[in-house]
Write a structure and sequence with these properties.
Order of helices and strands: EEHHHHHHHHHHHH
Number of helices: 12
Mean pLDDT: 83
Length: 308
Amino acid sequence: MTRPSYDRGVPRARQAPWTVGGLVLIALAAVSWGTSGSVMTVLVDRAAASPLLVGTARLWVAAILLLLAASMTSGPIAVAADDRWRCIAMGACMAVYQAAYFTAVTLSGIAIAALVAICSAPLVIATLAPWLLGERRAMRARVALALGVLGTALLVAAPHGLPDLSARFVGGVLLALVAGLAYALYVLAAKASLTQSAPLPLAALTFTVGAVVLTPALLWTSAPLAQLALGWPWLLYLGGVTTAAAYAVYTVGLRHVPASVAGLVTLLEPLTATVLGVALFGERLGAAGGAGALLLVAALGLLVTDRR
């Protein structure tokens, strides 16, 4: 495999135009992530599963599956020497994301936690990518980002009205911001690592680190074995499909798409979750939510039709 050439340590591949194939792979990952909320609803209803146990279990399932896949397809599971510290940092970011996001859900509710975490991540990525990765985005991509974030806000928050600004709620919002920041840093580190390391071993080692870091959180979980016994089919789905497969596909797509664009495309996650909520659980979208969905589709359309 030919590695990208370098000029004073900055990979030239970072300046390459993105591909539609890369966008499609990231979109598939985002759609897969969008099913997690529905599965989490089933887990809570049937297994009384705690968020921390779900986060830990899905990381371990994903780590095992990715390690097996990497060993069968890539040979020795290793990354470039310069990427080892990034791999550890990415695993820590993934563990922080799981713990912060799921705890935020318990404090401020699913809608607000999702809104803050999902909307803040692409904004952080777009802000830091020019400095850390040398990415420069055209006006079309900036407009798409603004439309996407506004659309997500309308889609997620509008049907739920104004929240009660209690200390508990504010704590949940702050944790959701931490989750969004952790995810953004994960994406930026992954994009930088993919210039030298193969996607599958990188993802496998990252999720192994994340699983190890998050495992102590089970000390704050009551009856984890009973929860595992009742919810194992859905936990396998979360770990195997929405984590291992989705992040493997996402990492491959990220190799061909700028980090800032990838952050925008992942806004398909709340759109998918909303569609499933309406179709499966009888949730109402409303006029504002419908307008948000249209803005999200328009934002993605701007990216897909960018011929550059």
